[in-house]
Each structure stands twice: as C-alpha cells, then as structure tokens.
C-alpha cells in the first residue's frame, strides 16, 4: 500500500508509491552519448579555461600549465559575477539586485575520467580539501552569505562536460531550501533539546534498514522520506554546523564513504545520472550552530511531472528500505587505473 512520509527536518511530505513497485533491477543502464575528446578540462588544455584561481600542483610549475592534480577556475559562462554591489532594490511589487556572486569549476582530475568513484581515495581527499579551501576563501567577501558546492553527473544530471568536475556558486542570499532546513533543525532543537540529524543517525544505526555504509566518522543512508529512488545522504557523526570545520581524519573517512557510496550506485545502475549537493550553514551571519551539514546524492531516474510541479509533493516508486538493501548488497567495483598521484602535501 502507498504511504505518506514526512521529512523530519522540513515540513515536506513524500509519497512512497509501493504500488508502482519499481525494484532495483527495473532501472536499466543509462546510455550516455560520448562527447568530444577535445576536452578543455584535461591537463595540457589549461589555456582553454579562464585563468586558474587555485590548483594543487607540482612545485616549480607555473599557473595555467600542466603539473596540477586538482584545479579551480571561474566558470566560463557564470550564473553570477563577483563585480557589483549586493544591494536589494524595489520597483513596485518587485525586488531585485545585481547578479553578484561567484561561480567556479573544480576540476577533479588531470585525466579524462568521468566519475569520482574512478579516483583514488587520496585524490578524493584532495577534492574535499579544495572544496574547504574555496569555502574559507570566499567567505572573506562579506557580501556573500551562502556557498553551494555541488556536482552534476550525466546528461540528465545537467553535466555538459563528461570530465569529472564539481562546481561552486556563492550567493549574497541564503537559499529558501537552506532557510527551511535551518528553521526545521532549530524548531526540533527547541522542542526536543537535541539535533534532529544526530537523532536520525542514531535511529538509522539502530534500525539498519536504510543504512548503506557506516565509516568511522560518516554514515551514508537512504533517508526515510526519500524524494527520489536511491536518494542517499552522507552525514558526519559528529555534530558540525559548518563544512569548513572538517578535520583531517574526517576528510579521509568522507573520501572513503563518498567514493564507496558512488561506486555502489554506479555499479548497480551503470551511468546513473545524479546531482550531489553539500548543505552547510550560511556564512557572514550569526552562526547557526544547531544546523548539521550533510551531502545529498539525488539520482535522476524519475521525472517531475504535473502533480509534483503543482503540489511540491514528490512521488518515489522505490521505498528507501529496498534501495538501501540493494546498495548494501551491491559490490563496490573500481576501475583499474595506472594512476600517478603525488603524496598529499596539503594539511589542515
């Protein structure tokens, strides 16, 4: 029988449509059209991108030349630009402001590979470190209030380049979804005296039904009110409101849990498109210490149609308990790559 489920953080109900009964084997391999090999993100193509902002590279190598293993550049077609004043203006019933912000591309490998699961654990650690470095640097600009790190994978996930990369957009406003999460976590803390995410982790560990991977510092699980088939969250066990608080031991564990989770997902449904978003607390504002930062992985296996767009309710045909069991039982397969990776020289 179908079931309504409420997200414990935000006031959002989801329909788990068990009558539609889509099981893991019902999702077929996604056929991705091969893109041009003339890739602007590969090593040796540095002049095809805007000048780099930062790169982890070999000592003695110059900016915008080979020798890097993670590189950050401005988006060539930015949604927002850093110039201008973040002053809200009014015209009648309408509010507006200049398109102030930052839009950056994090090139996750100097090799032409498509997925984070194809990287070494050490390389994924480096990606996490550069996410942190950019978050710490951008918050120095007091105009910026929120830093959204995200990854689009596959055509249905909005990726226009197949070379593995993530993105960052910093905004002068706090997004409505983040405000809703902040309010939900604050209301829960006021009502029960504890963190809703910490309580969720305790229940997921106790019940095991939706747990995918438990590491030393992070857990991945299918949320109780999953909006999408195989939606998976990765959450730090320690209560931290700001992603930039992450420590070296946590970076190592997050790299492992994230890579293993994505490996299971991509092995179960080949070329599965997804969006991954990092939700952290706002910056340059009062600290939202009751917030609990987390990563959300949202596979793009279903379409939003009239009902979803008209009501805001999601219909998920695959119960999270079935999705989590399938992911737990899926073998972690990693491509064999002759990858050359220098010893990490980046420290907290």
From TrEMBL:
InterPro entries: ADP-glucose_phosphorylase, GalP_UDPtransf1, GalP_Utransf_C, GalP_Utransf_N, HIT-like_sf
Residues the entry annotates as binding Zn(2+): 39, 42, 112, 163
Positions of the catalytic residues: 165 (tele-ump-histidine intermediate)
All residue ranges annotated as the Galactose-1-phosphate uridyl transferase C-terminal domain in the record: 183-297
Domain of life of the organism encoding this protein: Bacteria
GO biological process, one term: galactose metabolic process
GO molecular function: UDP-glucose:hexose-1-phosphate uridylyltransferase activity; zinc ion binding
Domain Galactose-1-phosphate uridyl transferase N-terminal residue range list: 4-175
Cofactor(s) it depends on: Zn(2+)
Keyword tags: Carbohydrate metabolism, Galactose metabolism, Metal-binding, Nucleotidyltransferase, Transferase, Zinc
Cofactor stoichiometry and binding remark: Binds 1 zinc ion per subunit.
Protein EC: 2.7.7.12
One Pfam family this sequence matches: GalP_UDP_tr_C
Family that this chain belongs to: Belongs to the galactose-1-phosphate uridylyltransferase type 1 family.
NCBIfam families: galT_1
Name this polypeptide is given: Galactose-1-phosphate uridylyltransferase
Organism from which the protein derives: Pelotomaculum propionicicum
């Amino acid at each position: 029988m179908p079931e309504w489920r409420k997200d414990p953080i935000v006031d959002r109900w989801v329909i788990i449509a068990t009558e539609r009964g889509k099981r893991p084997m019902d999702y077929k391999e996604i056929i991705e059209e091969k893109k041009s090999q003339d890739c602007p993100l590969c090593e040796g193509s540095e002049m095809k991108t805007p000048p780099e902002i930062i790169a982890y590279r070999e000592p003695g190598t110059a900016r915008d030349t080979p020798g890097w293993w993670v590189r950050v550049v401005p988006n060539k077609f930015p949604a927002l630009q850093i110039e201008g004043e973040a002053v809200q203006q009014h015209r009648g019933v309408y509010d507006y402001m200049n398109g102030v912000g930052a839009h950056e591309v994090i090139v996750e490998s100097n090799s032409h590979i498509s997925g984070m699961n194809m990287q070494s654990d050490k390389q994924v650690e480096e990606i996490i470190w550069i996410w942190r470095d950019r978050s710490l640097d951008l918050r120095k600009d007091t105009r910026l209030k929120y830093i959204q790190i995200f990854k689009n994978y596959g055509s249905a996930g909005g990726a226009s380049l197949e070379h593995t990369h993530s993105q960052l957009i910093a905004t002068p406003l706090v997004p409505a979804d983040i405000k809703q999460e902040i309010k939900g976590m604050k209301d829960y803390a006021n009502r029960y005296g504890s963190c809703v995410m910490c309580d969720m982790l305790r229940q997921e560990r106790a019940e095991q039904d939706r747990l995918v991977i438990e590491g030393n510092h992070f857990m991945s699980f299918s949320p109780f009110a999953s909006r999408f088939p195989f939606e998976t969250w990765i959450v730090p066990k320690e209560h931290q409101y700001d992603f930039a608080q992450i420590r070296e031991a946590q970076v190592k564990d997050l790299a492992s849990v994230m890579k293993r989770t994505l490996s299971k997902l991509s092995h179960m449904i080949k070329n599965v498109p997804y969006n991954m978003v990092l939700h952290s607390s706002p910056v340059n504002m009062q600290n939202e210490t009751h917030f609990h930062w987390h990563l959300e992985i949202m596979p793009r296996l279903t379409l939003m149609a009239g009902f979803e767009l008209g009501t805001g309710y999601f219909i998920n045909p695959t119960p999270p308990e079935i999705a989590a069991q399938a992911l737990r039982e899926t073998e972690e397969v990693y491509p064999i790559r002759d990858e050359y990776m220098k010893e990490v020289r980046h420290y907290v």
